[in-house]
Amino acid sequence: MFGPIYAKPGSSKKNLTGSWRTGLKPKFLQKECVGCNLCLIICPEVCVVGEEKNTFQTNYDYCKGCGNCAEICPKQDIVMIEE
Ligand code: SF4
Ligand code: SF4
Fold first, then answer.
1. Which of 41, 54, 56, 71 gives 30 a disulfide partner, CB atoms 3.0 to 4.6 angstroms apart?
2. Other residues' Cβ atoms within 10 Å of the Cβ of residue 65
3. Atom 4 of ligand 1, nearest CA residue
4. Residue range 28-69, pLDDT digits in tens
5. Could you give the count of Cα atoms lying within 13 Å of 23 in the half-sphere of its Cβ?
6. 21 close to ligand 1 (CB < 6 Angstrom)
7. Atom of ligand 2 at shortest distance to CA of 37?
8. Ligand 1 centre and the CA of 6: distance in Å?
């Protein structure tokens, strides 16, 4: 019988998921942003930071390049670019 496998608490910070990107990364243009927070909420790595409009950005150490943030941004203020 197998039980669940738990990672060591706090170990996720050491897991630099940015190395998983496969060629594309988001660029936060900070021009049309209205501060809706959708990019921050949808990011699976919780690596988007920002507080008010035109301040949002990501931490590339953890950004996997999934594109969710660019997809959901209502102002098209995030674009996916080549590494
Ligand atoms: S591309 Fe994905 S992982 Fe990177 S900031 Fe956007 S939602 Fe987060
Ligand atoms: S989803 Fe777009 S408009 Fe909303 S906070 Fe993020 S960058 Fe700004």
1. 54
2. 21
3. 63
4. 999 999 999 999 999 999 999 999 999 999 999 999 999 999
5. 0
6. no
7. 5
8. 24
